[in-house]
Amino acid sequence: MNFNERCYALLRQIPRGRVTTYKLIAEALGTKAYRAVGRAMATNPNPIVVPCHRVIKSDGSLGHYTTDEAAEGSVIKQQLLEEEGIIVKNRKVADLPKVLYDFTT
Question: Active-site residue 7, yes or no?
């Protein structure tokens, strides 16, 4: 499996209503390549099947969705998260500790 495929395999483990961070995915892969994880999410060929909308920044902010860096992509990401029950306020996931998925637990 290449790096992106390994990222996507981890992503499939995240249940609906939970999120993780680029950093936690990188750490689960044994690397500090957080930006490479971000690039993998941006080039995800199956964004609903492989739920890259569930990956956010460590500070709880949403980040981007797919390769669309315009506001529209971020709005879609927020809508997908909210449909799963994630509360987003001021472009950040509210109560992050309760919804954060950590691959080590």
Answer: no
